[in-house]
Amino acid sequence: MKHIVAPVAEIPPGERRLVEAHGKRVVVFNLAGEFFALSDRCPHQGGSLAAGPVMGLVESPCPGEYHYGRAGEIIRCPWHAWEFDIRTGKSRFDPRRMKVRAFPACVEKGEALQAETFPVLIEEDYVVVEL
Amino acid sequence: MDLPAGAIDADLHPMVPGLSALAPYLPDLWRDQITLRGMEGFDTQAYPPKAPKTVRADWRPQGEWPASRIGHLREQVLDPWRVSRGIVTPLYGVQLVFNEDMGHAFTAALNDWTRAEWLDADPRLAGSIVLPMFNAEHAVAEIERCAPDPRFVQAMVLVMGETPLGRRHNWPVFEALVKHNLPLAIHAGTAYRNPVTSLGWPSWYAEDYAANQQAFQSTMASLITEGVFVRFPTLKVVLLESGVSWLPAFLWRLVKGWKGVRFEVPWLDRNPFDVVRENVRLSIQPFDAPEDAETVQRVMDHLGSDQMLLWSSDWPHWQFDGPPRLPPGIDATLARKICVENALSTFDRLALEVTP
């Protein structure tokens, strides 16, 4: 089900917005103009990811070497600091088995959204999540 | 459960009968220092010679040092319990010496004493290279010196040393161990560089002995988080006289912390519990669980592996009375693993067949 979150200008790069729709709490992130949506419930104990800090990704080919990149693309749960990749919802410590649910998010033109119940302006772009 | 025949004893402690026993194995310089300085010996308060825990009372012979001759070991362990192989690890306190050159010399003498007085005396015996860890170069040199003798099947450090064991200044030691396919044994005890608890000095021996468990925990945390098993994935670590039952609960805490601060140790790309299951082995004397099968089974379930435990008598330490038994609730298959198979897969240099 398609849900219109906000006009693009309301969630600038590096910002996030918590939305509630269709019985779900979803946090929408703007990573340098690309939008991603994750369930706001940490799969561990349900902490609100919208309230967690973001950081880059620290990786290492061997002890003592640090590669730090992907600034702002890792969200950490405010409760136990678990790291999740904003792009995929996968945790860093066990990406295969521990992940937060990710929802498709995109930008659509107001013109194309006129049939929705959300009031839109034809000339604006909107962030949309598929729930 | 009784011991299966042919068991391998992973933790035997011959006692050095006074510093003069090492004299024949010392260079002249250090041999003369014993007399010139009036050195009395390196008996350590980790195992005070007269403490009940140090030697079982009925293993103290009249008029001579206990556990100091091959005859004692044969009569008290090897023959009556039909032990097929035993690994001897003297706990003489050569680690206490602050002069690193003197420490190196006495440690090398101790290893030569082990070789001559024990390994040469009974083909069932294998040995541990005691490492002079005050100086990593000395430790590497001692590994290189002793490793050509295949009867040395592991190297040994005390659990409480100078600094947390996993620190990178010790990595040349791990590199040498891996090169020679030698596991690193970590035994209870201290070099007395730091108080034996992180709170400061305890009052009583019971506190002191129990504190080893904290040290084992911090040592495991150090090795894992520093990335020793990432850099040296084939390094095996054998915890001796560590106890067993504390390990799962400790790892639950370490794993929980790691999940939250993984970014701090980004090289650690596996759950620490999995690292331990793969790289760490523990002797089961003591096991530290109540004498009921259900509790023991629960500890085994928490460990989640039947390959981690190694049987040991801990001779001549006072861990039990009478003949050796395994903890209750261990079936024959697991008993065989603990007493024979796990040791064979841990110590690549140890074969069941012995060449006299």
What's the arrangement of strands in the largest beta sheet of chain B?
1-2-3-4-5-6-7-8
CATH top level label of chain B: Alpha Beta
Mass-distribution shape of chain A: elongated
The helix-strand sequence of chain A is EEEEEEEEEE
Q: How many separate helices of chain B?
A: 11
Summed up, the domain count of chain A is 1
How is the main sheet of chain A built? 4 strands, antiparallel
Radius of gyration of chain B: 19 Å
Shape of chain B: globular
Average pLDDT across residues of chain A?
94
Radius of gyration of chain A: 16 Å
Query: How many β-strands of chain B, per DSSP?
Result: 8
Overall SS class of chain B: alpha/beta
- From the 3D coordinates, which CATH architecture of chain B would you assign? Alpha-Beta Barrel
How is this structure best summarized?
The complex is a heterodimer of chains A (131) and B (356). With 131 residues, chain A is an all-beta fold.
Helix and strand topology:
The complex is a heterodimer of chains A (131) and B (356).
Chain A: E1 2-7, E2 16-21, E3 24-31, E4 34-39, E5 54-59, E6 67-76, E7 83-85, E8 102-103, E9 105-109, E10 125-130
Antiparallel strand pairs in A: 1-10, 2-3, 3-4, 4-8, 5-6, 6-7, 9-10
Chain B: E1 8-12, H1 28-36, H2 70-78, E2 85-88, H3 100-119, E3 125-130, H4 136-146, E4 152-160, H5 171-179, E5 184-190, H6 205-225, H7 228-231, E6 237-240, H8 246-260, H9 272-279, E7 280-283, H10 293-303, E8 309-310, H11 332-346
Parallel strand pairs in B: 1-2, 2-3, 3-4, 4-5, 5-6, 6-7, 7-8
Helix pairs in contact in B: 3-4, 4-5
